[in-house]
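Shift notes (night). Ran Formate dehydrogenase-O, cytochrome b556 subunit while the centrifuge was going.
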Amino acid sequence: MSKEQRIQRYTAPERINHWIVAFCFVFAAISGLGFFFPSFNWLMNIFGTLQLARILHPFVGVLMFAAFMLMFLRYWKENLFNREDWVWAKNILKIITNHEVGDTGRYNLGQKCVFWAAIISLLLLLVSGVVIWRPYFAPVFPIPLIRIALLVHSLAAVGLIIVIMVHIYAALWIKGTITAMVEGWVPAAWAKLHHPRWYREVREKQQENKP
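Came back to this:
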């Protein structure tokens, strides 16, 4: 496929950043489920021992939050809601049947909701995780607060898992999305169909940069 027939959606640093978050999420989710559900204790054998999983879980969680914050700083402006999102929402039945509507920018309403739900969940996980983190921080906090933090941490974790499942399903559903995050580019026709405003913006920049 020639350069004219494809458009770069993500640079190499952006893709590396994304996959760091993804791998950290898998580790944190698997170990977290092992802690929360006794019947899932066997999951922690993947990481060697239960003790090692307990030690690594919070550190991996902090790394995941830090990596996602880099993504947040890169993408937050493009995930602000606008009028076109209302058009997308009103035509959700057409979207479900794979008919694109509206003048969508780099991200549509569904992607924006996943983005903001993820950052809210991660903020709750970070704050509550610090409160329950033994042996470093938990001794500083009273028991009632630790109990509340445990509840918040569990609910936020379930929320994040659901959000990521929706994210993965949508990525598999829309052909070409996985390619964008693996190889960094998408066909121009894909961009024009799914993100027409973003497609025009990219083409305009390309024209401006031509000698």
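The chain has a mean pLDDT of 91. Residues 34 and 41 are 4 Å apart (CA to CA).
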